Amino acid sequence: MSADDIPLLFHTSCKMRRTELRRFLDEVIRRVARGRSIACLVTGDAEVRRLNHRYRGQNSATDVLSFPASEKNGPPKAKNGFAGDLAISVDRARRQAAEHGHSLEDELRILILHGALHLTGLDHENDAGRMARSEARWRRRLGLPQGLIERALIERALIQRAGK
């Protein structure tokens, strides 16, 4: 499969290095998802909010949504060998990239990795740090800036320190 065959859909006019993102998604599919394919939609806050409301009952936009192939309440799935779907808000990615001082493409890569880890069955909300450790390892291997879980932990620590 070439990088041009990777199911990465852009429903945005935002300028970004799309070929590089396709190559990155291909690498994540090969290495992180162990060859199981991932379909990824890069769109705006409004579409992500709609998907979040429809499939998760939450009427808010977020940076990345993951719909594992085995999940019964997500979009319909294709066939075996399919890890699942990702939906990424380019609006959120752009704001987060500016906030953390790196490129939009790096932020999109961080979100693809984070979502792909969810598609492999990891869940940072209830796995005693397993996903956080995995995200940190993959982030280092793939040369990415600080990941989502690491950011949240740092932010939480700063809030706690300020409250003392």
What's the mean pLDDT score?
84
Shape: globular
Report the C-alpha radius of gyration, rounded.
15 Å
CATH architecture label: 3-Layer(aba) Sandwich
Poorly predicted ranges (pLDDT <50, ≥5 residues)?
none
Q: How are the strands ordered across the major sheet?
A: 1-2-4-3
CATH class term: Alpha Beta
The H-level CATH homologous superfamily, spelled out, is Metalloproteases ("zincins"), catalytic domain
Strand content: 5-15%
Report the end-to-end length measured between terminal Cα atoms.
Answer: 54 Å
The tally of structural domains comes to 1
Record field, number of beta strands:
4
What percent of the residues sit in helical stretches (DSSP H or I)? 40-55%
As for the CATH topology, it is: Collagenase (Catalytic Domain)
Please describe the biggest sheet, giving its number of strands, its sense, and whether it closes into a barrel.
4 strands, mixed
